[in-house]
Amino acid sequence: MISIQRVVLIFTIILTNSWISFAQNHLPRWFTIAFKQQKLGNQYELLEKISPRYLKADFDGDRVDDLVVMVRHKQNKKIGLLLMQGGSCKVVTFGAGSMLGKTGFDETDDLKWIDGWKVYKSKIAYETKFDNGDIIGSIKRKLSHPAISVWQNMDGSPLAGGLVVWNGKQYIWIHQGE
Question: In angstroms, rounded to a whole number, what is the distance separating the alpha carbons of residues 119 and 80?
């Protein structure tokens, strides 16, 4: 016979895990309001291709958290990232038909290759350098703000990707891996 305390504990664990999953995937109210007010739904479809559904951090150093979601452009069907600045609700897109610097991938305006992402909080990153398509080494880069780390998997492990990082003037791409 199971005690009432055990049943309550099991029920609490189930509810807590469900709430954590919901909270990690439910978009904040400020974002959904701004998305609707700016009529971004006319141009972009929100995707749930990877988990978590969104990334949140102060990517531009203004001390207000920004939010990044994965989107598909409704006309050209290309996938990208949409970053909404927390304070101003200004929108910046990467991919979805907009170029994302020299990523080392053939289609830099379509980020369909992304298999995973996370907030990169380290103050140091290593940028892979190429010469005529061959890796020639890496250089150490100092980061002032968190970055958006994206990658492509091969056989279940990250193969290549990079960081989208604010350099004080604009977002840039730092290539990592192959």
Answer: 16
Task: Give the C-alpha distances (Å, rounded to integers) separating 165 from 24, 28, 75, 139.
Answer: 22, 22, 27, 16
Q: For the segment 23-41, what is each residue's pLDDT rounded down to a tens digit?
A: 345 899 999 999 999 999 9
pLDDT in tens, 84-116: 999 899 999 998 887 765 544 444 788 898 999
Residue given tokens 């061959």 in the structure block: 134
Q: Which of 38, 34, 95 is nearest to 64 (CA)?
A: 34
Largest CA distance in the chain: 70
Instruction: Give the SS3 label for residue 3.
Output: coil
pTM of the model: 0.78
Cα–Cα distance list, 9 to 5, 21, 23, 135 (Å): 6, 18, 21, 54
The mean per-residue pLDDT over the stretch 71-96 comes to: 93
Helix (H, G, I), strand (E, B) or coil at 9: helix
Structure tokens at 65: 């958290």
Tokens of 67: 């939010």
Distance CA 150, CA 118 (A): 7
